[in-house]
Specification:
33% helix, 5-stranded parallel beta sheet, alpha/beta, Fumarate Reductase Iron-sulfur Protein, Chain B, domain 2, 495 residues, globular, FAD/NAD(P)-binding domain
């Protein structure tokens, strides 16, 4: 059973009370099997938006924690963009000190419940686990991170860290995505007065509008925001920096440092015939309508969305998987992933691909759309696709798709979601004089400090990287906070 508020204080069985006290050799630890995450059955979960992964029980978490070898030089930490003390929090779980484990996580990670759910541990910390060299499954670091933060929250035992020193310096973060939230939380713990400005009515950026409820419940996001508010972070909603207020006006109001974390919310399209037809969405619009504006609860929420019966999602990343799995939940009879490379080249997490297949999603790999056909009302009715082969590797390290001549055919569709990536939000780069901008529209920063060409402005996340992961954005926010602290205290030493 997953952990819940009643289980947390229940008496543990004598069997694994003894396990907690038993000392294991490294050989015995390495012989333990990796835990399997409990999850909802595919048919049941595909009818609604409940969270798919249901969480580890206390017993499962302790047993998985016992697999950690507590290496003298833990290579797992080097794979974490925010440098969590991974063996430290795992050993506390092994001892049954779940609150202590959560506190250890929060020393370096402002959003552990989020990261435990959406961070790609398999290519970061777990990819650097020593078990990889032993050809054994790595410690389930992500599952344990989720367990510890959930246990703390469900027990009502959330401890807010003390403030290093109350300071008069005011700093602003633009956008409330993972980069800004991490930056803000760190600066607040150091005693700076921090305000996060968000253009929308809901906070947390992609965590709210991009990632579906079945992967990241919004109650989890709200609890992380509440923690940051308790630390001292202030939030201003419905404020469009660059439109309703300028950076210069914010300087006049007393802000002395700025972090730009405005993300990459500009949808990309393929610019093929028929792409403006009714029933063709960008993944951003599709997921925002469903996640942020609750279209899946229409008419209780007044945000309609086309509930297509034959839905094609273009792309092979996590956003494409989120979109196609959402389509299944909205009642699609047929839901397709159309991807121009092979499954091996897909950037989506292996778990997301696996879950999509379990839920009935069809995968048309080595296939690319070239035209959309419409009916008399201008609605998409068919998609012309062509088969692709794979050539030499490109700059991404993946094999380049090449067209197979004469391979075109038609597929019946009534909804298409284009999930081939996003571009940086152009508003901030255009609104702030002095920033250096790349040809892709991203902001140029010093990679060590995240400082821009304007000394009091730092930036991170997708506005710097283009599309990237939540944890990489968080790493940027943490790095920028450390550099801004040095910059501001050097400029205002008495603050």
């Amino acid at each position: 059973m997953p952990v819940d508020s009643q289980e947390l204080h229940a008496d543990r069985s004598q069997e694994w009370r003894n396990e907690l006290r038993a000392r294991l050799s490294a050989k015995e630890r390495s012989a333990l099997p990796r835990v399997k995450m409990p999850e909802m059955e595919a048919r049941e979960r595909s009818r609604g938006f409940q969270e798919v992964n249901t969480g580890l029980s206390e017993e499962m978490a302790v047993r998985e924690a016992r697999r950690c070898l507590d290496c003298a030089s833990p290579t797992c930490i080097s794979g974490c963009p925010v440098n969590i003390n991974i063996p430290g929090f795992i050993k506390l779980i092994e001892k049954g000190d779940f609150s202590g484990a959560a506190r250890k996580l929060k020393e370096t990670n402002a959003l552990p419940a989020v990261c435990g759910r959406v961070c790609p541990q398999e290519v970061q910390c777990e990819a650097n686990c020593v078990y990889q060299k032993m050809k054994k499954p790595p410690v389930a670091i992500g599952y344990l991170e989720r367990f510890a933060s959930d246990a703390e929250r469900l027990a009502g035992d959330v401890i807010v860290p003390g403030i290093e020193k109350k300071r008069s310096l005011r700093v602003a973060a633009v956008g409330s995505g993972p980069a800004s939230l991490t930056f803000a939380g760190q600066m607040a713990k150091w005693g700076f007065q921090v305000t996060v400005f968000e253009a929308l009515h809901e906070l947390a950026g992609v965590l709210s509008y991009g990632i579906p409820e079945f992967r990241l419940p919004k109650s989890i996001v709200r609890s992380e925001i509440a923690y940051l508010e308790a630390v001292g972070v202030a939030f201003a909603r419905n404020v469009i920096v660059g439109k309703t207020i300028s950076i210069e006006e914010m300087r006049e109001q007393g802000f002395q440092g700025f972090f730009i974390g405005s993300g990459a919310g500009l949808p990309k399209f393929m610019h093929i015939p028929g792409e403006n037809a009714i029933g063709i969405y960008s993944s951003n619009e599709y997921l925002t309508r469903v996640n942020l504006m609750k279209a899946y609860q229409f008419p209780s929420y007044d945000t309609p969305i086309v509930r297509g019966k034959r839905v094609a999602v273009i792309g092979g990343g996590n956003t494409a998987m989120d979109s196609v799995r959402t389509a299944i939940r909205l009642g699609a009879d047929r839901a397709l992933i159309v991807y121009r490379r092979s499954e091996q080249e897909m950037p989506a997490r292996i778990e997301e691909v696996h879950h999509a297949k379990e839920e009935g999603v069809e995968f048309l790999t080595l296939t690319n759309p070239v035209e959309y056909l419409v009916d008399n009302d201008g609605r998409v009715k068919q998609m012309r696709v062509q088969k692709m082969g794979l050539g030499a590797a490109d700059d991404s390290g993946r094999r380049r798709p090449v067209v197979i001549a004469g391979s075109e055919y038609l597929i019946d569709v009534d909804t298409v979601v284009v999930g081939v990536g996003t571009d940086p939000n152009p508003l901030i780069p255009q609104a702030i004089k002095g920033l250096e901008i790349t040809k892709w529209g991203t902001i140029v920063v010093d990679e060590e400090t995240m400082q821009t060409a304007v000394p009091d402005i730092f930036a991170g996340g997708d506005i710097v990287r283009g599309g990237a992961t939540v944890i990489l954005a968080m790493g940027d926010g943490k790095k920028a906070a450390a550099a801004m602290k040095d910059y501001l205290l050097g400029k205002f030493p008495d603050s």
